Amino acid sequence: MSTETAEVKEEVKKPSEALFSKRRKRIVSDPLNEDNPITVQVLGICSALAITIKMEPTLVMSIAVIAVIVFSNLIISLIRGLIPGRVRIIVQLAIIATLVTLVSEVLKAYYFDMYKVLGAFVGLIITNCIVMGRLEAFAMANKPYDSILDGLGSGFGYAWIILVVAFFRELFGSGSIMNFKIFEAIGWESFPTNGLMVDSIGAFMVLGILIWVQRSRTGYVEH
Amino acid sequence: MQRSNTYIILFSVALTVVLGGLLSLASVGLKPAQQKQVELDTKKKILGAVMDISTYEDPNKILSLYDERVESIVVDINGDEVTTDEKGNPVVAEKVNIQKNYRFDASERLYPVFKFKNDPSSDQIDAYIFPMFGAGLWDWISGYVALENDLNTIKGVAFDHKQETPGLGARITSEEIKSRFVGKEIYEGSELVSVSMVKGEGNTGLTEHQVDGMSGATLTGKGVNAMMESYLGYYQSYISKVKSGDGAVALNQ
Predict the structure, then answer these.
(1) Cα B60 to chain center, whole Å?
(2) Do residue B30 and residue A98 have CB atoms under 8 angstroms apart?
(3) Is B108 domain-assigned?
(4) B52 inside 8 A of chain A by CB
């Protein structure tokens, strides 16, 4: 492929970049914190609200999203030299949709209970703005390895936020963590669960507080 | 870089073929595993109405338990057994889609009946399980209601729903709500009265035909009531046939 030969030539000219150079570390770490897709860019909110009632489905959703972002970034980056500019958005969409369908089929075959819980939301990864945003902004213009790192960064950036939201929602809404009844375990059987937390409104509140904490810590201001 | 139209069209065709091929492969390859999961899910729900199966971890154990304990037949609105569909293909109770049948008129639907035996070697039927389907507050609800062999007392229920409000209507799937139905009776003398959830929670002095309601989910409760009343009505001819001894044939099958 043309892209690969180009890479080889570059490596001959200058010493190759370290596998985990400073620049590459930043590609991964930025979206985790200062440039987080949810709390700073406020993308992917829909699923962050819908599937964070309990931690287990949230974990599965996180893995699904990370897999889709990483692989679509990789594929788009590999064929970026071949994609005609005029139809690039459709090409990106087709690849995301294919990957998401694959994830959904695999879930249905091997993890049916989770498939029922997540239902339409796995399919809705297609419309998750984070995925397409990364393809258009990064993978179309960067090498495959960097694109994988970028995908991991954005994926984990999304994952840790929804896991934190799910942690608080499950803790206060159902009195458990990963379906383990934590309050009963420590002898507080009459723990009053909060109905607001199992509702979407609870997710808005937790997410809002999280964004507030995050932004006041990094000093990010919207202009 | 501007590409020619021919290139764009060729690229799109190639991409479509590759992605389409990939999806078809995955779909065909995963089909058996998916069908097994759906089958397992149905059988789990049927068994869940009469016994606690949460201790069974191994899916194959559940399937073999189902095979030795459960017999099934399909009946029509008159309580007569249906063995073949209009095309002459055999009807399998486990494969009857209650949700699809719900779209037809009540008199044209297929009604599966699952007969549960405590002791696999005897002919004694210990519970009759009737699947049902209806409307909740936001979307469909469904259920399996198990009656003792007197065909009057509820042995257990299992409900499912698409999107009742979490924490409110969605509680119908919880053990707490399910256990409220156990031991209630659906007949008053010879008249079918079904069992209904009352409004509000923490009610006392409930009759044999009433169960305590769910606070904040009165409309889901009404959906459950309507579903149970209508479906028990549809199964009534079958129930009276079994009771009157006509069912002795069914018992000895």
Answers:
(1) 20
(2) no
(3) yes
(4) no
Domain holding A102, by residue range, is 38-217
Kindly provide the ipTM of the predicted complex, given to two decimals: 0.75
Q: Please, are residues B69 and B129 in contact by the beta-carbon 8 Å criterion?
A: no
B138 close to B165: Cβ distance less than 8 angstroms: yes
Name the band, by pLDDT with cuts 50, 70 and 90, for residue A62: very high
Segment B137-179, tens digit of pLDDT: 888 888 899 888 888 888 888 888 887 876 778 888 888 888 8
* Domain contains B157: yes
- B166: nearest CB among A95, A98, A198: A198
Does A102 sit within 8 Å of B23, measured CB to CB? Answer: yes
Split at pLDDT 50, 70, 90, the class of B210 is confident
B15 touches chain A (CB under 8 A): yes
Tally Cβ neighbours within 10 Å of residue A200.
13
Which among A53, A76, A89, A105 is the top mutation candidate for probing chain B, defined by the most B β-carbons within 10 Å of its own β-carbon?
Answer: A105
A30 found inside a domain: no
Question: Do the domain assignments include residue B71?
Answer: yes
| Lookup result for tokens 């069992």 | B195
**Does A24 reside within a domain?**
no
Mean pLDDT along residues A44-61: 83
Which tokens sit at A76?
């788009």
Q: How many C-alpha atoms does B99 have within 13 Å on its Cβ side? A: 9
- Residue A131 identity (one-letter amino acid): V
CA-wise closest residue to B95 among B33, B26, B41: B41
| A51 neighbourhood in chain B, CB within 8 Å | none
In this structure, is residue A9 part of a structural domain? no
What are the angstrom distances between the C-alpha of A35 and each of A71, A222, B153? 21, 12, 61
List helix spans (H) across B49-187. Answer: 59-69, 98-101, 175-181
In the sheet with B140-148, reading across from the earlier edge strand, the strands are B70-75, B111-116, B127-135, B140-148, B154-161
Averaged pLDDT for residues A48-56: 83
- Of all residues in chain B, the percent with pLDDT exceeding 90 is 13
In a domain, A202, yes or no: yes
B1 in A contact zone (CB under 8 Å): yes
The number of folded domains in chain A is: 1
- Residue B161's domain spans which residues? 47-252
Q: Indicate the number of domains in chain B.
A: 1
Computed from CA positions of residues A199, A201, A202, A203, in that sequence, does the dihedral angle turn out positive or negative? positive
pLDDT digits (tens, 9 = 90+) for A135-180: 999 999 999 999 999 999 999 988 998 999 999 998 888 888 887 8
B36 to chain A: nearest residue by CA? A109
